[in-house]
Design goal:
Helix content: 25-40%
Strand order of the largest sheet: 4-3-2-1-5-8-9-10-13
Structural class: alpha/beta
Number of helices: 16
């Protein structure tokens, strides 16, 4: 799997993980039928299959209406951590090149890649210097009409434009938000100075999710750079986007985190002011990542931003529906509705904090789902374990373990409890949360895993006309290290969810 949550384990563990979790994508799973795959299709042979949610494009007007004649795709691929992620990202570049070659509108698509790999003087089949180089950082433009195979050197289907950017004159640190900022700012200036292109940004690497601990400062991050020993923290992503010029006047149309554990409310809220659409996974992401062929084939003047995002999620679902023992997930969020979701989240936290007797919601009914990891069942409570390492070069310095939970499912459980207590106010708060989740989530998918924990297709919303599952939120800690930091994230500053966690985990 794409272990983007920086589990730097002992060498033996790394070998075992690489062998057991490196999954490829066969050619049969990437074909023209992918675009017609229904993300919410429920298998007919599942006796306990859940209802199929109704798709409501009217709730995502901006995404549904946005179609573009020209696209600028910026791919920030940070592979300076281990060889498996490095090679997977190279494969993603070649997949993108082949898809571009098949897209009749490729002349209107500019694709720029910042790729950072390992530098050890080893023979790399992808290097420009006849396979021998200590250079690991490249700024590349994918050629519009080039095809390639897995082992085709990069020089055959990309153009090295590193000399055009001052920040590329030496080995880069892809674990620094400044590098991301410089890349985005330079690319927009170089290719989109008149803002005639719609921008899609992909961040491909390892990811640890949105939360660290009060004890550790470098866990809530992504894009580890082994050479520098650094990461890009979650809140630094928003800083990089802001400094690169994105904001109210110019937003990224689609931001894709092709990393693990970032399909969270906290991550989505962090970038809401700088992008319109957001795709990520609440759980671990396989090493092959999203389907880049589908992304690039979807970039046509006839395809809306909404449909492009759904195509990506649909292809992901088809590819990973029974992919190993880990349950795969993906969620496409409408960031224009994240502000309202944050307010309704605060309402729940405010209510429980102001009415301590209802903390029993979390100590009783919700205790099972929010607080006690030893009894959790992924078939029931839709939780995702996040295990982190403090130092990417020292596996002995372990971090903490906590869990994030599907927020829609938590809202369901609290609602059920409130009904039992005849608490109409709390019922209304939970109803508001589900309404706002439905507006924030375009579509989501959760695989079965192996064995089949759930019917393949969709999160099990209990009403066939609703779709409010897919975004997770932090909710558990083990030991004394709290899985949150008071002022690190915008979500913590703007909501009182953190206050609730403080009360639950004093």
């Amino acid at each position: 799997m794409r272990f983007r949550f920086f589990m730097l384990v002992l060498c033996a563990h790394l070998v075992l993980l690489a062998v057991s979790c490196k999954y490829g994508i066969d050619s049969d799973s990437r074909n023209e039928n992918i675009r017609n795959f229904l993300i919410f299709k429920t298998l007919t042979d599942k006796s306990q299959a859940y209802s199929v949610p109704v798709y409501k494009p009217e709730q995502h007007q901006l995404l549904a209406e946005k179609k573009s004649q020209k696209y600028l795709v910026l791919m920030y691929l940070a592979g300076d951590f281990d060889r498996s992620i490095e090679e997977a990202l190279i494969n993603n570049i070649s997949t993108a090149a082949n898809a571009l070659a098949e897209n009749p509108y490729s002349s209107n698509i500019k694709t720029v890649v910042l790729f950072d790999g390992r530098t050890s003087g080893t023979k790399f089949w992808y290097d420009y210097d006849n396979g021998i180089s200590t250079k690991g950082s490249f700024l590349l433009e994918i050629k519009a009409n080039s095809t390639c195979t897995k082992n085709t050197p990069l020089i055959e289907y990309t153009t090295d434009v590193s000399s055009k950017a001052d920040f590329m004159q030496s080995e880069i640190n892809s674990g620094s938000y400044i590098t991301l900022q410089n890349f985005l700012s330079w690319a927009e200036s170089e290719y989109n100075s008149d803002q005639s292109y719609s921008t899609i940004v992909v961040v491909g690497s390892h990811g640890s999710g949105s939360y660290g601990t009060k004890k550790t400062a470098n866990l809530n991050s992504m894009c580890p750079d082994y050479n520098s020993g650094t990461f890009i923290y979650t809140n630094e992503i928003s800083l990089a986007l802001k400094n690169a010029g994105y904001g109210a006047e110019k937003k990224i149309d689609l931001l894709i985190y092709d990393v693990c554990l970032c399909g969270t409310i906290e991550d989505a809220y962090e970038v809401k002011d700088y992008a319109n659409g957001f795709i990520a996974s609440a759980n671990e992401t396989p090493i092959a990542g999203i389907n880049y062929d589908v992304l690039f084939k979807s970039l046509t003047p006839q395809t809306s931003l909404l449909q492009t995002g759904r195509n990506i999620c649909s292809a992901f679902a088809q590819t990973y529906r029974t992919h190993g023992t880990t349950i795969r997930t993906i969620v496409f969020s409408d960031l224009t509705n994240m502000e309202q979701l944050a307010r309704s989240t605060s309402s729940l936290a405010d209510y429980v904090v102001a009415n301590p007797k209802y903390a029993s919601i979390f100590d009783g009914t919700i205790h099972y789902y929010l607080k006690v990891p030893s009894t959790l069942n992924s078939n029931d409570c839709l939780y995702y374990q996040c295990t982190f390492w403090i130092n990417i070069r020292d596996s002995s310095k372990q971090g903490t373990t906590f869990y994030s939970f599907d927020f829609g499912y938590l809202a369901d459980k609290v609602y059920d409890y409130a009904q039992e207590q005849n608490n109409t106010e709390l019922c209304q708060i939970c109803s508001n949360i589900k309404d706002d989740l439905e507006k924030a989530i375009v579509c989501s998918w959760r695989g079965t895993g192996s064995p089949d924990y759930l019917p393949e297709g969709c999160y099990p919303s209990f009403n066939s006309t609703r779709n409010y599952y897919g975004l997770s939120i932090v909710g558990i800690t083990t030991g004394s290290n709290r899985p949150y930091r008071d002022s690190t994230f915008a979500f913590n500053t703007d909501t009182t969810w953190n206050t609730l966690l403080e009360m639950l985990y004093p």
